C-alpha cells in the first residue's frame, strides 16, 4: 500500500530529532486522533540578506506515512528561503513520495502544517510581516485544532481523570 | 523467506502439511458435487459427512448440528440474523458485548437499523464480562445472547459456561464466537446453542467455517437456494475446505495439550520480556486468556509504524491502532477495556501458532526493544514524563 519512496524515508528518515537552538518550532496534531509532529527550524541570513532555513529537524508520533512525510518535508524545506518554504504544500510532499494512500493524505497535511506553523511562529516572534496566505493557513490550522479539541473533549477529560487516578497509584496507568 | 518470523496467527495460520495432504485429492480426483446421485457425487458426500462427524465428535455435538459455511463471518451473520428472523419471531432484543468481532457487532448494528433492539455490555479492565451483567440485561423480548469465547485482540476468556447456563434457565438462545478458542481450549459446548468457528485460524484452509446449531435452536437461513446443509445454508459444499477443516480439527485435538503448553510458555516469556521495556502495559487478562494471544501497548509510539518497523526486521505482528484502520479509529476492544487513548495508539498484538518456536520469541524479544527505542527517539513524547498527554 505504501510506495518504495515512503518505505525508504520511513526506514532511513532524514533530519530527525530535536534541533539545538531552533529559531522557531511548529507543533501540530493531537494525540487523541493519533498523530503529532513538532518541526524545528533554524533561520539564517544568506549572502543576499534573505532569511533561509539553514537547518530543520522534526519529532513525530505517528504512522509510517507521518514519519515519511516528516522526513520529506524537512528535505524540501532545507536550504529554502522562508518565502519559498511557505509555498510547500502537502500535495508537494505526497508527490515527492510517489503518492500516498488516500486515508494517509492527512498525514502529509500534518507535515506541511508543521512547516507552516514554524515559519509563522518565526515571523511573528520577530515582528516580521506575515504573508496573507500563511496567515490564512495558520488561522485554519488553529481552527482545526480547536475543532478537534472540542470533538475529543470528552475523551481528553476521561484521559485526564485516568491520569489523575494513575498518579494516585492505580494500576494500568501509562507508565 | 525462511528467516521471516510469523507472529500474527490470530489473523490467519499456515495450512499444516497433513491438512494439505488430506485436502489434495478433493480438488481433482474426488471432485463430484456432493448433491449428485452418481458415484462421483456419492464419494464427495461421504467425505463431507465423515468430516462433519469428526468435527461434531470433537465439539461433543451431533453431526446434524454442524452447518458448514464460507467462514466465521458468515457463521456469525447466520447465527445473529438467522435468530432474529427465526420462524414466528418479530422484533426483539439481543444482548452482546462491546468487544465482539465486527462480524458480530456489525450484524447486530444491522439488526438495530431494522427495528431490533440491542444491549452491548461493558467489560472490565481485563476485557471480561460478568455473568450477572448478562442476567441483568435480559428482557422479556430478548431472543439471543452473543458473547465471544476468547477475544481475538486481547485473548481474554469469557465465562461462557456460566452465561450459557443463565440463558438456558431463561430459554434464550446463546451464541458464542469461538473462532480463536476452537482447538485451543476446552469449549463448554453443552451450554451453547450456536457456535461459530473458522478453519484458517487453526492451520486449516481459508474460506471454510461452521456454525453449530443445536437441535432445539431455530434459525432462519440467510442464504437461499438448493437447500444444502439441511436447508440452513444453501450452496454447493466446499468439499476440499471441509475435508481440510476436519483434518485441522483432528490435528488440533491430537496436539492441543502439547502445543497449548508451548503457547502458554511463549506467552509468559512475552509478558516478561515486553514488560521489562519501560512504558509498556499488557492489554487483557494476565492469566485467564487464550494461550496464543498477547497484546501490549507502548507509550509514546504509534502501532502502525511499530508493525512496519518489525516487518523490516522480518517479523509479522499486528496492531489495533487508529492509523492502521480504514476509519482511523482505534480498536473498539482497546477502548472498551479503558486503555488510555495515548496508549491505545501504540498497541501490538503478538499471536503464536503450532509452528512458533522459542527462536521466534527470542528474535522478537531481541528486535522489539531496539525498534521501540528507535521509534521513541523519533517521537516528541518522552517516556517517563509526568504525563502521557503530549499537548502542552
Ligand atoms: C473472533 C473472530 N470472529 C470472526 C472472524 C472472521 O472469520 P473468517 O475470517 O473465517 O470470516 C475472525 C477472524 O478474522 C475472528 O477472529
Ligand atoms: S499518523 Fe495516523 S494515519 Fe498517519
Structure description:
The complex is a heterodimer of chains A (175) and B (392). By secondary structure, chain A is of the alpha+beta class. Chain A has one domain: Sufe protein. Chain: A, CATH 3.90.1010.10. Chain A is built from seven helices and three strands, in the order αβββαααααα. Chain A has a three-stranded antiparallel sheet with strand order 1-2-3. Chain A is globular, with a radius of gyration of 17 Å. With 392 residues, chain B is of the alpha/beta class. Chain B folds into two domains: 129 residues, Alpha-Beta Complex (Aspartate Aminotransferase, domain 1), CATH 3.90.1150; 235 residues, Aspartate Aminotransferase, domain 2, CATH 3.40.640. Chain B contains twelve helices and twelve strands. In chain B, the strands form three sheets. Chain B has a seven-stranded mixed sheet, sandwiched between helices. In chain B, strands 9-10-12 form a three-stranded antiparallel sheet. Chain B has a two-stranded parallel ribbon with strand order 1-11. In chain B, helix 3 runs parallel beside helix 8. Classes of the chains: A alpha+beta (175), B alpha/beta (392). At the A-B interface, helix 1, strand 2, strand 3, helix 2 and helix 7 of A face helix 9 and helix 11 of B. The complex binds pyridoxal-5'-phosphate and FE2/S2 (inorganic) cluster (FES). Pyridoxal-5'-phosphate binds next to helix 4 of chain B.
Amino acid at each position: 500500500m505504501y510506495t518504495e519512496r515512503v518505505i525508504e524515508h520511513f526506514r532511513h528518515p532524514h533530519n530527525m530529532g530535536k534541533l539545538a537552538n531552533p529559531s522557531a518550532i511548529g507543533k501540530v496534531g493531537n494525540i487523541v486522533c493519533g498523530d503529532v509532529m513538532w518541526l524545528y527550524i533554524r533561520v539564517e541570513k544568506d549572502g543576499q540578506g534573505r532569511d533561509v532555513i539553514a537547518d530543520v529537524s522534526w519529532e513525530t508520533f505517528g504512522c509510517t506515512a507521518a514519519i515519511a512525510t516528516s522526513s520529506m518535508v524537512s528535505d524540501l524545506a532545507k536550504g529554502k528561503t522562508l518565502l519559498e518554504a511557505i509555498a510547500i504544500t502537502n500535495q508537494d510532499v505526497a508527490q515527492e513520495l510517489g503518492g500516498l494512500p488516500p486515508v494517509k493524505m492527512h498525514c502529509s497535511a500534518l507535515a506541511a502544517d508543521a512547516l507552516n506553523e514554524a515559519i509563522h511562529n518565526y515571523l511573528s516572534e520577530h515582528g516580521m510581516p506575515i504573508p496573507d496566505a500563511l496567515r490564512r493557513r495558520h488561522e485554519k490550522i488553529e481552527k482545526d485544532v480547536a475543532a478537534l479539541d472540542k470533538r475529543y473533549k470528552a475523551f481528553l477529560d476521561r484521559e485526564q481523570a485516568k491520569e489523575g487516578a494513575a498518579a494516585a497509584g492505580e494500576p494500568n496507568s501509562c507508565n | 523467506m525462511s528467516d521471516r518470523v510469523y507472529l500474527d496467527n490470530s489473523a490467519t495460520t499456515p495450512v499444516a502439511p497433513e491438512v494439505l495432504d488430506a485436502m489434495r485429492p478433493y480438488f481433482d480426483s474426488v471432485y463430484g458435487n456432493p448433491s449428485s446421485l452418481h458415484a462421483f457425487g456419492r464419494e464427495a458426500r461421504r467425505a463431507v459427512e465423515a468430516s462433519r462427524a469428526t468435527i461434531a465428535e470433537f465439539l461433543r455435538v451431533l453431526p446434524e448440528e454442524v452447518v458448514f459455511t464460507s467462514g466465521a463471518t458468515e457463521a456469525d451473520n447466520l447465527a445473529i440474523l438467522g435468530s432474529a428472523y427465526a420462524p414466528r419471531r418479530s422484533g426483539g432484543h439481543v444482548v452482546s458485548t462491546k468487544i465482539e468481532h465486527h462480524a458480530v457487532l456489525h450484524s447486530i448494528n444491522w439488526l438495530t437499523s431494522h427495528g431490533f433492539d440491542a444491549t452491548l455490555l461493558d467489560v472490565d479492565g481485563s476485557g471480561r464480562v460478568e455473568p450477572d451483567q448478562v442476567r441483568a440485561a435480559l428482557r422479556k423480548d430478548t431472543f439471543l445472547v452473543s458473547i465471544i469465547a476468547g477475544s481475538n485482540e486481547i485473548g481474554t476468556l469469557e465465562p461462557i459456561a456460566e452465561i450459557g447456563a443463565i440463558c438456558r434457565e431463561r430459554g434464550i438462545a446463546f451464541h458464542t464466537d469461538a473462532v480463536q478458542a476452537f482447538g485451543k481450549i476446552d469449549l463448554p459446548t453443552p451450554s451453547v446453542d450456536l457456535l461459530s468457528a473458522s478453519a484458517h485460524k487453526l492451520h486449516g484452509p481459508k474460506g471454510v467455517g461452521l456454525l453449530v446449531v443445536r437441535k432445539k435452536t431455530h434459525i432462519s437461513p440467510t442464504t437461499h437456494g438448493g437447500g444444502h446443509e439441511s436447508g440452513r445454508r444453501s450452496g454447493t459444499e466446499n468439499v476440499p475446505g471441509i475435508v481440510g477443516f476436519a483434518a485441522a480439527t483432528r490435528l488440533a485435538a491430537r496436539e492441543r495439550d502439547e502445543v497449548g503448553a508451548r503457547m502458554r510458555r511463549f506467552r509468559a516469556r512475552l509478558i516478561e520480556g515486553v514488560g521489562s521495556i519501560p512504558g509498556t502495559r499488557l492489554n487483557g487478562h494476565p492469566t485467564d486468556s487464550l494461550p496464543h494471544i498477547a497484546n501490549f501497548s507502548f507509550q509514546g509510539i504509534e502501532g502502525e509504524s511499530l508493525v512496519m518497523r518489525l516487518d523490516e526486521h522480518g517479523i509479522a505482528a499486528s496492531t489495533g491502532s487508529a492509523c492502521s484502520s480504514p476509519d482511523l479509529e482505534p480498536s473498539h476492544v482497546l477502548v472498551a477495556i479503558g486503555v488510555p487513548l495515548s496508549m491505545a495508539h501504540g498497541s501490538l498484538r503478538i499471536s503464536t501458532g503450532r509452528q512458533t518456536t522459542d527462536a521466534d520469541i527470542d528474535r522478537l524479544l531481541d528486535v522489539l526493544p531496539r525498534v521501540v527505542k528507535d521509534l521513541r527517539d523519533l517521537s516528541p513524547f518522552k517516556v517517563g514524563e509526568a504525563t502521557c498527554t503530549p499537548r502542552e
